[in-house]
Amino acid sequence: MKVLVAVKRVIDYNVKVRVKPDNSGVDLANVKMAMNPFDEIAVEEAVRLKEKGIATEIVVVSIGPKAAQEQIRTALALGADRGILIETDEEVQSLDAAKLLKGVVEKEAPQLILLGKQSIDTDNNQTGQMLAGLLGCGQGTFASRVDVEGDSVVVEREIDGGLMDIKLKLPAVITADLRLNEPRYASLPNIMKAKKKPLETLSVGDLGVELKPRLKTLKVEEPPKRQAGIKVSSVDELVEKLKNEAKVI
Amino acid sequence: MSVLVVADHDNQNLKPVTLNVLGAAKQLGGDIVVLVAGEGCGAVAEQAAKAEGVSKVLVADNAAYGHHLAENVAALIAEIASDYSHILAAANTTGKDILPRAAALLDVAQVSDIIRVESADTFVRPFYAGNAIATVQSSDPIKVITVRGTGFDAVAAEGGSAAVESLDIVKDAGLSEFVKEELAKSDRPELTSARVVVSGGRGMQNGENFKMLYELADKLGAAVGASRAAVDAGFVPNDMQVGQTGKIVAPELYIAVGISGAIQHLAGMSDSKVIVAINKDEDAPIFQVADYGLVADLFEAVPELISKL
Questions:
Q1: pLDDT score of B297
Q2: Which of A107, B241, B265, B305 has the smallest number of CB atoms closer than 10 Å to its CB?
Q3: B126 → closest Cβ in A26, A154, A223
Q4: CA distances (Å), B291 to each of A179, B1, B109, B273, in order?
Q5: B17/B96 same-domain check
Q6: Does B70 contact A129 at a Cβ distance shorter than 8 Å?
Q7: ipTM, 2 decimals?
Q8: Is the pLDDT of residue A88 over 90?
Q9: Which chain A residues are Cβ-neighbours of B101 within 8 angstroms?
Q10: Cis, peptide link before residue A171, omega less than 30° from 0
Q11: CATH number of the domain at A2-244, out of 3.40.50.620, 3.40.190.10, 3.30.2350.10, 3.40.50.880?
Q12: In 3-state terms, what secondary structure has residue B172?
């Protein structure tokens, strides 16, 4: 079974996010970039499926600037077999990303498509669902367990009330949540090997898609700052403050 | 202008967050129609009809919609979408699952997790884990939007008398089926709508120690939450997670116990009205957002707090 994993280049999760002084966006100049952490979980799941003998080939795809090759190489070092970069310097919004990924799915015909549930930059949580809708296939979002059984897959999903299992016909789209697995670190020999794995570059036009951003960002601001309050010295003082000052109990 | 609000429910009760989504719909103006897609969900339709400002309730009652499977419900939404200028649902796991798929079927974008309505086409939403707030304008003919419940006041649950109309459209894509569900049972208030929330973090050390927080919560009529660290460590189940990728809460009072205050956690609770932090590490970042900080061993402070309430 062929597995396709989509990964996104985003700001590293340890980097302090700074809003640009002109409120036009977030400052990404000279900032450390990395693979979106949820996508790393998706890659790890694909690698585990291969180790179990279920997946036969893992293709990793990314959309973005030339530098996004780094994130594809990271996925190759973790165990993916080959990479595809859809290279563009334009802004790619979720719907367009889903259309581009649909183009890749039609070329590659994977049985399983894995993505992170959301990227930690836009926090949209849309692309997997949109891709599944465009492909007309089933979707298992917020996945915390994936069991492939013949021509279907059972996905345990983390929902607000607890856990829900659904069964999807293959091909299907699955989006990874935090507890699906714990991604491994790439070993040095594997990082070296990854440099020799094939990486194909496509243009947006190659996939017959025209980028059409529908959402315009008018401004980006810092969130209102919360002021630190006071330190109380005892439980008695805390109870007194909550009763008489904050009046919340 | 006409707004379709997709109701969140469990086939018996309308979830309170739907009233907040209706609050966002009210700010948009125009007619408000509620879609109740489910199975045996007549009682939910009646509750929705009583909510303030609702002009009509559409009920799609069919086994295909019983478990809110996105493949079926999104197809239903797409089928009726052309009558509306806006389609809204709660930004919870159900809304986040269904709505982007419906948007793709309609070839429109989705605006996720809005916290404010600026105008009919302009909305405010946090991104980068709440470290930045964007004002975005949509050029699509139909605006598909998920709404963060804590950003909008709930409309009144009673007082309305909207017409209930049944919708005879069955969309069964045959792509997915429900297998099972394990839902947490609790007599405590629901996390996202509770007036008081008590949350525990890694400092709780194990799941057993959370009993202390349940006891404290019961004294205060509170819900109990947890940090990602506590969930990852297996102390408590995932449905208790508060944060960027868990639940977003904004209660009157939030008590953080043994939580250091990672940015991902703050993203889920920093809109709380009053924040209390109990932590033995006086440099923990949680104290930078807390109104009242108590530097103490939680295993001494929490039992004392319980005894004094």
A1: 98
A2: A107
A3: A223
A4: 32, 43, 39, 9
A5: yes
A6: yes
A7: 0.96
A8: yes
A9: 129-130, 132-133, 139
A10: yes
A11: 3.40.50.620
A12: coil
